[in-house]
Amino acid sequence: MVKPFEFDEGQFALARAVESDVPALVALLADDVLGAHRESSELEPYLAAFREIDRDPNHLLLTVRDGEDNLVGTMQLTLIPGLSRGGAKRLQIEGVRLASTVRGTGLGTALFEWAHEHGRQQGAVLAQLTSDKTRSDAQRFYSRLGYQASHEGFKRSL
User: Fold this and answer.
1) pLDDT at res. 3
2) DSSP assignment of 111-150, as one string?
3) Total-model pTM
4) Chain-wide mean pLDDT for the chain?
């Protein structure tokens, strides 16, 4: 169950994604300098991934819709239990995208505030995310929210 989300006098609604949202979510992910090159037009892998995400209670894939029911944002929240930091649970935030039409409106800040509160309510003591090194605007935004570039991330194709 997704807790109510109010921003801009109710002009935006937050909901758990459903399978019929997948094409619009993929389009949002692809409408981006990096996403244009790494996202695919083949929907089946995205549908399979959605089903796996949706089955796992530690994952929450969110949609943000405007007052005209247009999908204008998304983020995936994952709760990760761990032994380090005294058995701390972490909130991993991934796949954050806002449509260009709503960037700079404060919606992103409100969405992150909602996500942080969700994490706290689920017992998370730390929120973490990664951002591509080329996304300088996103990194400035995350810094304004209090995130620190405290670690160097590594990835490897399998």
Assistant:
1) 64
2) HHHHHHHHHHHTTEEEEEE---TT-HHHHHHHHHTT----
3) 0.89
4) 90
